[in-house]
Design a protein that fits this description.
The protein is an alpha/beta fold. Helices cover 44% and strands 20% of the residues. The chain has an 8-stranded mixed beta barrel with strand order 1-2-4-5-6-7-8-9, surrounded by 4 helices. The longest helix is centred in the first third of the chain and has 21 residues. It starts with a helix and ends with a helix. The mean pLDDT is 94. Bound molecules: ligand C2E and calcium ion (CA) (2 copies). The site of one calcium ion has 4 residues, from loops.
């Protein structure tokens, strides 16, 4: 609550690249909290608390508005093709304002077209009433916003949800990417998930790419997009502008 009241949050942006061309395609917005005393609290600590005390709706809305405002700025700088991915907590689907309606209002307010925006959701969605969830996701997707299944492969994800729920993007979890380095089995698993995503007609993005060996395997397997410390850490909006200009040049 203090973070929100005192304006102590800001966003970092991690670049996402086309695996084949190396071009910058998009960014993932990641929230940061620096307290008045200068302490950095990681989102893995404060997001669950925000969910627990019921401020995730307000926090999520701040993140969405701030990231969309930044996307407008990047577009003014000429970065017309940049996509923006924003993490959305499952509870944001159950707030007082319908999420699809909230997103629509933000897009209109910022003058953004929906096809530049992507929301990242996790399989915690599956714990809810699945028919209800499908309808809620579909309403978001009907606006033209893409839906990405984050951390894919972790937890208890059942493959049947890929059929039931309307996902556009599968985000291969970091643990599978790091397993690429740990023997044939790990590599095979990563490649198999990428093939599955492709065969289902979904875009596949790998996160947590940390070395050239992993990147080579992902590229050979036909993974569409890559994100990770090797290619770029979460950074300021200005840094994104800088690398975008460099990647065009
Ligand atoms: P996530 O959505 O899976 O985000 C990716 C996390 O992996 C980020 O941590 C990022 O800094 C880190 N990462 C990126 N590349 C690499 C890499 O190559 N190696 C390693 N080891 N790590 C990498 P971060 O920023 O600490 O975020 C942690 C989690 O907090 C996120 O995981 C997401 O679940 C949540 N989160 C962050 N921002 C938001 C937000 O605005 N809303 C919601 N609901 N959740 C958020
Ligand atoms: Ca994410
Ligand atoms: Ca993730």
């Amino acid at each position: 609550r203090r973070a929100l009241d005192n304006d102590e949050l800001h966003l970092a942006y991690q670049p996402q690249f086309d695996t084949k061309t190396g071009a910058l395609c998009g960014v993932e917005a990641l929230v940061r909290w620096t307290t008045a005393s200068g302490e950095n609290i990681p989102p893995s600590t404060f997001i669950p608390i925000a969910e627990e005390i019921g401020v995730i709706g307000e926090l999520g809305r701040w993140v969405m508005r701030t990231a969309c405002r930044q996307l407008v700025n990047w577009r003014k700088e000429g970065l017309h093709n940049l996509r923006l991915a924003v993490n959305v907590s499952v509870q944001q689907f159950y707030g007082t304002v319908d999420l699809a309606e909230q997103l629509r209002a933000i897009l209109v307010d910022k003058g953004l077209s929906a096809d530049r925006l992507e929301i990242e959701v996790t399989e915690s969605l599956f714990m809810r009433n699945i028919e209800d969830m499908r309808a809620k996701l579909q309403r978001v997707r009907d606006l033209g916003i893409r839906i990405s299944l984050d951390d894919f492969g972790t937890g208890f994800s059942s493959l049947s949800y890929l059929r039931t729920l309307p996902f556009d993007v599968i985000k291969l979890d970091r643990s599978f990417v790091s397993d690429i380095d740990h023997g044939d089995e790990g590599r095979t698993l990563a490649i198999t998930i990428i093939n599955m995503a492709r065969n289902l007609g979904k875009t596949c993005i790998a996160e947590g790419v940390e070395n050239e060996g992993q990147l080579a395997v992902l590229r050979d397997a036909g993974c569409d997009l890559v994100q990770g410390f090797l290619l770029g850490r979460p950074m300021t909006a200005e840094d994104i502008s800088r690398i975008a200009t460099a990647s065009v040049a």
